[in-house]
Amino acid sequence: MSTAVWVRPGVRYRCGASLKLSDTRVRFEFASRPPKGGKPPEPLRVPLEFGGEWRAETTAAAGLDHVSVSAVVECSSPFVDAIDRVWIVPAEP
C-alpha cells in the first residue's frame, strides 16, 4: 500500500496506473477518519479495470467524510518490475 495522500472531501479525483506486468492489480482506497476511540470505517475501494490494456484510469469522488486515499498494488513480482507509475490528481471541473 502506498503512503496516504490527503484529499479534499467532495472533490473528484483521477486515479490511474500504468503497468509493466499484466497480472498486476491496482485499487484505490479512500479512507475516513476513525471516530474517537472507535474502529475506522471500511474504506471506499475503487478498483482499476485494465481490460487487457497496460494503462487504466477512473474517476472517483472523495466522500464528505474521506480524508485520504492510498493506492494498493497486488503483484506476483517485485513492485518495481510490475508497475510503471500510479497517479491520483484532482479531476478537471
Largest sheet: 4 strands, antiparallel
Low confidence ranges: none
The count of strands amounts to: 7
Percent in strands: over 45%
Structural class label = mainly beta
Globally, the shape reads globular
Q: What's the SSE pattern?
A: EEEEEEHE
Distance between the termini: 28 Å
Strand order in the sheet with the most strands: 1-6-3-4
The percentage helix is under 10%
Question: Quick check: average pLDDT?
Answer: 92
Counting H and I runs of at least 4 residues, what is the number of helices? Answer: 1
Question: What is the gist of this entry?
Answer:
The protein is mostly beta strands. 4% of the residues lie in helices and 49% in strands.
Notes on the structure:
- With 93 residues, the chain is mainly β.
- 4% of the residues lie in helices and 49% in strands.
- It has 1 helix and 7 strands.
- The chain has one helix spanning 79-82, and strands at 5-6, 12-19, 25-32, 44-47, 55-61, 66-74, 83-90.
- The strands form 2 sheets. Strands 1-6-3-4 form a 4-stranded antiparallel β-sheet, with no helix packed on it. A 3-stranded antiparallel β-sheet has the order 5-2-7.
- The longest helix is centred in the C-terminal third of the chain and has 4 residues, at 79-82.
- The termini are far apart.
- The model has no long low-confidence stretch (mean pLDDT 92).
List keywords for this structure.
7 strands; 49% strand; globular
Secondary-structure blueprint:
Layout: E1 5-6, E2 12-19, E3 25-32, E4 44-47, E5 55-61, E6 66-74, H1 79-82, E7 83-90
Antiparallel strand pairs: 1-6, 2-5, 2-7, 3-4, 3-6
